[in-house]
Design goal:
Length: 166
């Protein structure tokens, strides 16, 4: 399952839901046929993207009260229904737990990704149990191999940007 958003509130009185997107591509909501909420597949009957946000309606959610019951819930899609990320972009779920390597030596495993304005911030837990954080900058990441669960970093650039736990 790939989380694509969170229901933030009911919109209006007819059961429309305002969604906080957790995806780079808000337009992807316009093509949704179904979503998964709390493990249950629900049919999407309409979707719209506006300057005020992303809004969807779900079959069976016909009024504000029913919509309010879904506030705070995550919405997901199956991997088959996920939009393929552009080259050089990855699903967070695919990066979690990946080995982070510099010059053939494993630094540790990627254990957290904090999404911020300009660049995601990665947290890597080393073999010694200590953590190191660094911004996910294009010039620091040499390659990402999802199949082999390996991210290779540029040593010099990593040393410039990494913050180590004391």
């Amino acid at each position: 399952m790939i989380v694509i958003g969170e229901i933030v509130k009911a919109q209006g009185v007819k059961g429309e839901l305002k969604i906080m997107p957790m995806t780079d591509n808000e337009e992807r909501f316009l093509k949704l046929k179904s979503v998964v909420i709390d493990g249950e597949t629900r049919d999407v009957t309409s979707a719209r993207v506006s300057p005020n946000g992303v809004f969807i309606t779900i079959k069976g959610v016909d009024d504000r009260n029913a919509a309010e019951l879904l506030r705070g819930k995550k919405i997901s899609v199956t991997r088959e229904n996920a939009v393929k990320p552009p080259k050089g972009r990855y699903f967070i779920v695919d990066l979690m737990g990946i080995d982070v390597v510099i010059e053939g030596d494993t630094v540790g495993k990627l254990v957290d990704i904090a999404q911020s304005g300009s660049a995601d911030v990665y947290t890597v837990k080393g073999k010694d149990g200590k953590s190191v954080v660094f911004p996910a900058l294009k010039d620091a990441i040499i390659s990402v191999d999802i199949e082999n669960r390996k991210m290779t970093l540029d040593k010099k650039r990593f040393e410039e940007i990494a913050l180590y736990e004391d």
